[in-house]
Structures
1.
Amino acid sequence: MSNASDNVPFAWSVAIVVVAIAAYVGLAWLTPDRYYQLIFTIILIWAAVGVAFNLFSGYSGLLSFGHAAFFGLGAYTVGLLFVNAGISPWIGIVVAALVGVVAGVVIGYPTFRLRGHYFALAMLAYPLVLLYVFQWLGFQEVSLPMVRKAAADYMQFADTRVYIAFSGVLLAIALAINLYVARSRFGLSLLAIKQNEPAAMAAGMNPLSWKLKAIMLSASLTSVAGGLYAVVQLIVTPESVFGLLVSSRALIVTLFGGIGTVAGPVVGSLILIPLGEVLQAQLSDILPGIQGVVLGVAIIAVVLLAPEGVLPYVMKRVPRKGATAGGVLALDTTPYVRETNAPSVAAPMLEVRDIAVRFGGLQALSKVTFDVHPAEILGIIGPNGAGKTTLFNILNGFIAPTQGGVRFEEREIVGQPAYEICRAGIGRTFQIVRPFAGLSVLRNVVVGAFAHRHDEAAAYAEARNALERVGLSARAGVLAGNLTTMELRLMELARALAGQPKLLLLDETLAGLGAGEVEHMLRAIAAIRKQGVAIVIIEHTMHAMVRLADRLVVLDHGEAIATGDPEAVINLPHVIEAYLGKKWADHAAA
Amino acid sequence: MNAYVLIENVLQALYTGLVVGCIYGLMCVGLALIFSVMRVINFAQGEFLMLGMYAALFCFAQIGVGALLGPGVGAVVASLLAGVIVFAIGAILYDVLLRPVTGLSVAGTEGEGHYPQLTLTLGLSLLLQNGGLIAFGSSPQTIRTPLSSSAWELPVFGQDISLFLNKARTVACIVTLAVAFAVAIFINRSRHGKMLRAAADNAEAATYMGIRVTRAHRLAFALGAAISAIAGGLVATYYPFQPYVGLEFIIVMYAGVVLGGMGSVMGAFWGGITIGLVQQLSTLVLPQQLQNATIFVVFLLIILLRPQGLFGRNVERV
């Protein structure tokens, strides 16, 4: 996520965090004034909430306007356990963490079906429902009673500086988790899903499962922060923990500092919280609500002036050493010489039987039947709108056919989600290339490897190997957003290969390439087949396909009108008619 | 006798629900207009409502509209004037804040710029709420008219059951209907309305047809703000308000807009009426404090189960 995390080992980053927070707590320890001690404490608490918020929203790209739900549940868990059952906040905070996990699932599971505006609005509503429910339950004001004996057992300390240390520990834990996530399969998967959900699914990821894990973690940390807040403030009211200002504060410190960066929420909290608090203390007589004005102005200014946040804004203006330029792609533009496989006698690996799809009144495919044999290159050609991409969407599980079946290695795969089909061994690329533009080429490809590898080192090794296989190793460190069309196509090919597919679906991989680039690509595809991967490729430029494919299937208006040897197929009159119209078919026959 | 009380209560709740619902409906129309044209969910819409209340109070008490026209007509005229004032504020806010993050400048960017828009209007909402606190103070205000504390008594089935029609709310309801009707005519019949609808449908294509999308957006934002402000001015005649009052209504507006199908301006009006009915009828069976919770729950159920709304088609592509 943050660029720094690529280069600094995990242990070192954690050490830096611990030292920085220890220094902060040490400095704060020198403050005699209890009011300033409180400010030092809540800066850390809001920073932790920001980090927790960022763990979810920064990685998943789904802005949560409802983290107050988790914060408030944590605060009330600690408060009510203490008041009603005499349970110490030490235990209460642990329970709060569990409550957060449960709340994360209960809220996340139904809400992740929503997107964009709907997701934002639904998240906004949860804490506000809780606010009214807690008011109605009669918890307008829960005060934590003072304990005389063994106060430390109940997290009560005469010296309020202890709370600064507690909050420091909480923030350190939150940051350590964030640093870990940033380099793990977890964080990378979330980033991939955020940038392009269909591509991530086709690469073997289950988006719902990752998002749920993210919100559980984030909600749990937020609840713990809420619990600590209750301990520090000694009083919990619905407005102070479920109110709109709680969610806004989490969001604002994060966006202000820089969403998606590890340190962003900390920077945001360090600047905005004391500014708001001090102004509030000094000016609230003449300017009530000045804290809200500060937060409002801060977020408006950031959105308009530095949308990526203050920290990235500053970092961009600091000259960096060793910016990765990356090598140059070595293009081999000599004409590709056709290689074919002898017709296979082995059992087909993929059997497509009588597939039909309707979209409302449109019959997109009807009665399409064909086989794919191991290590075969099967070309699917047809004019625009013939149903080629729809066919792929069925084969990799994006849509279900209205009727018919698809068997892959003797198993029915219709009805399985895309990520399961990918894990079963069917990889695909897209007609419109779907890169994770903000990630390096290597990381783009690792996403594919993670589909079946949980071990990170092995996944990276496999990704490098896949880049080698398509000839893109020199560009491994470049951001995918900076690639040429040719390089993007090769990267997609590598990402699909990194998933170790047995069958690869290539959707118009040759589209938009120059003449020389086509030759390079044909050679790359043929090389993959040589390693034993079966390939189904869609194209509408017949010329290249005749040279590449072992067999062709011709689709027209959703029907397979011809199947067989390329040279033979393209000379069939009804194929020519489909492509060029009746006149040319007659012409060819004459 | 008990049955009479029950019937009376139900009828009273139905009536109040309809009347309050019409006013909610008008608020919702303002939010929906902004959303349907600009694809922006305006978090600050509740604050436009609040500004409308203070603007109406200002016109009524300071400028002397109330003294000039009498408390009844004066309050209505003050509300309409509040609409004009907030229209101007909306137009300025659009140019200063909204324009850089909406419309053609973000077309085709990641998520069409939804999140910057949401956070920007969230910031605007905080700014207006707390700025309002500084400017107007925290003590609750109302536009004092004798109407708010008097009612028409309407006998139903002879003498046994009678409905009390609060005069302020009933007048407010009639005015909202008139304003909503005017808005509908404006959007569906006028040239400017056509411009708004074209810009809403496809901003880029509208540009090619010679429509100035920025102008359409400014008009939509200012008009949307003004419509909610008029509703606010009317609410101010029977409901005490302070600078944070927007929070009490914003979720009503969201619920109404989602209920009516996001993107449908008039659907939002029906959505608002439904919310008014749900809110008032819920008081028959649930404690008063859960009135707002009920709205939220209805809102969540709608958004989770039928995001295209009760009345509309799904306009937002997902």
2.
Amino acid sequence: MSTTLHKKKLSIISFSGDFDKLVAAFTLATGSAAVGYDVNIFFTFWGLNAIKQKKSRAFTGKGFWARFFGFLMGGINNAPLSKLNFLGASPKLMTYMMRKSNVATLNELVEAAILLNINLYACEMSMQIMGLTKDDFIPEVKEVLGVANFLKYSEDGDRLFI
Amino acid sequence: MTFVKTKIELSKLQSGDRLEVLLVEGEPLENVPRSSEEQGYKVISVEHVKENIHKIIIEK
């Protein structure tokens, strides 16, 4: 009888694009990668904002409504808190509190994810809706995927929806 | 996050190099030595520096 040793795997679907949920997703991702997990993050819908090249508001995308939404949503620097956003003051306040407590900020967490070779993927369907192309994202985004390939890449591991 | 930063710094070193990590009591102090050994690194020493701060030396 033979047994195959599967490397531990974690796949996170980053949907919400909220600042606090992105911090949670990246903390789980980097913490797991640091102890040897194979980690995938699949960015979809609002989550796509976290991996845009333009980190602040810009008219990215094709088509009037796509560019309208693209501008309003912005990039990772505009990620709102999921509660008590106070018109955008809270993410800045949270970042200040995180620095003060010597906890990694969201941008530091994303940097750590890249250094730990975490696989970053973008959702094809949401990209189509928003008229985005792979060039609108940071170069570290590995591939554009649909559900079928996401299921294949996340097989035999745990999946989380954040 | 402490072990994440430790792992990233260790990955920049050559085999045989040592890394000094200053961390706080609680989860970091429990987690870093254990995870380092699990990942194949060698924990040379763990010492209390002051208040709740400890120093760990890890060899790659």
3.
Amino acid sequence: MSLPNLAGTQSVSFISGADGRIRRRLLLSRVFAGTCRFATYSAMAVLVVLLVAIFYSSIGRLSPDFVTNTNSANPEKAGMLAGLWGSFWLILFTSLFSVPVGVGSAVYLEEIARDNFFVRIIKVNLANLAGVPSIVYGILGYTVFRTFAATLSIWFDGNHVVGVLGLFRVRLAKLPLYEDNVLVGALTLTLVILPTVIAASQEALRSVPSSIRVASLALGATRWQTIWRQVIPAALPGISTGVILSTSRAIGEAAPLIMLGALTYTSMCPGNIDSPVKLLTRPGQVLHAPLDQFTAMPIEIYDWSKHPEPQFTAVAASGIVVLLVVLLAINSVAMIVRHYASRRMKW
Amino acid sequence: MTRSKTRAWASRRVFRYDEKLIQSVLFLCAALSVLTTAAIIMVLLGNAVYASGAKKAFFEQVSLWQFLTGTHWKPVDGPAGRFGMIPLVSGTFMVALIASLVSVPTGLGAAIYMSEYAAPREREILKPVLEVLAGIPSVIYGFFALKFITPYILKPALSLFGLELGTFNTLSAGIVVGIMVTPLIASLSEDVIRSVPRSLREAAYALGSTRFDVSARVVVPAALSGILAAFLLAFSRAIGETMAVVIAGGQQPIATLNPLRGAQTMTSFMVHASTGDSAADSISRMSIYAIGIALFVITLTINLISGWILRRFREVYQ
């Protein structure tokens, strides 16, 4: 809220008597303005310093082979391929889980729910879940999802035989299942970002004018037809922007994954898929990938950052550059969606 | 269609099972969040307070009093283990305090500048840049603290005063956590400051106030509840912050108030312990759940207080 510059710059020497006092007050005002401006721009300066420091440290290691090599004990050869693929699979499944549930919850809370006791509990609960540190979700994932996967891996080890109705027996197929697999990581990340996804979708749904709903209902559409054919399409740009931004938060998240026992040092990509070509030509490996162990970009950066050998500083910095580029790409997609949508939709 | 038929249709209560089914599915989606909270609480309590079966919960082996007041944290199995949380809590609060010292003045200053001083165009640039600062992952800040702030800024600066700085120290960790939560304070405070009605500002200017008087004596007091709530939210975020502290803050659980040394926080202990190779139901593993409860309770309490302040002391203007 910028007001015209009423006081603070003109000289007011024509006021006699209290002249000195006014001068002091104006000086104080100017100092205060300068301090606030300094605070704001120092935050900007920190961002610049951060980026420059990281790019400067990455010199010497950042090269094309950094994203085609997997991790190595040799800082000259260590690369981020395993982390890139790990993050790819994690984000794929995190979005698959969180988008339907998140948008579904938002639709329920905004479009269907009446204001009753249970709905109020859900809302209060969501507000508080958003403030739970992500590492606490890591404990949950470790205890519930990982234990569940471990139980499954015991049952599906190829040695168990299940009798069906006493008629015939089925040998359970062997599943290549690890207890710290991609799905366990993705489920945990889903819980971490779900409150954000729900809040963003709610906001998008709220911005759809109620005239659209009323018009649709007046034409005889049912409630769900109205939601599915009118409200959700109208809110889609907002929802997708919010979802993309929350997903980009999940990419940088390391703490819950480390709690789960994600690999910190590995040269293996999930399902041994290390190129986009294999994604199309090796369906068996694609099916294996969600059940395989994984590492992720922020985990590898963490591992390199705490490495005692100083040469790994450049490796960590290169990893950060790659992570920042990925985040930038994702955020630009969100911005493009927002831009085009705001041009198309007008009410 | 005859008239009577139409009326019959209209009078019948339309009950569509598919609609109801979809609504129930959506309700289950929304209820999942409640289930998550319940699961978190059950998992924490079920391993820390009371465990079923053969394994023993944490507080069945260590007394609550010992846990809350003990000043030694040595999470090893066997008789040598000491489980007093004071060192971890002091480390956590030291980081959060340093973070507040960095973020409160900066965030509030930025909020006042953006709402009271900046031209709309300038604001349009400043806001997204602050959002970028908030969107940078925590590991990156950890790297920045460990590899840049500590060796190139703090070490030279402190050596002028003859002070020695450890490679891992809570000072650098606190500073980067402060940088991380500054955008949170700035954007939340800016929202409440902007919601202070223009008439208040105009009245103050009409009485001869300078811009400082208007900002500091009229607008900020009017928005104080929201600003306080923002501070508390940022503080609780700083307490739960993990990776930056793990990387830059070190892993020594020592009860110290010296920010130049390393100290373990609650979150960095949890990461450290989970990467260890102790057995799943050993007491050193179980201590993760006890610290998890403490972390959950502390952050939840601060968040609830923040929400309460926001509701209780909100100034309502027509």
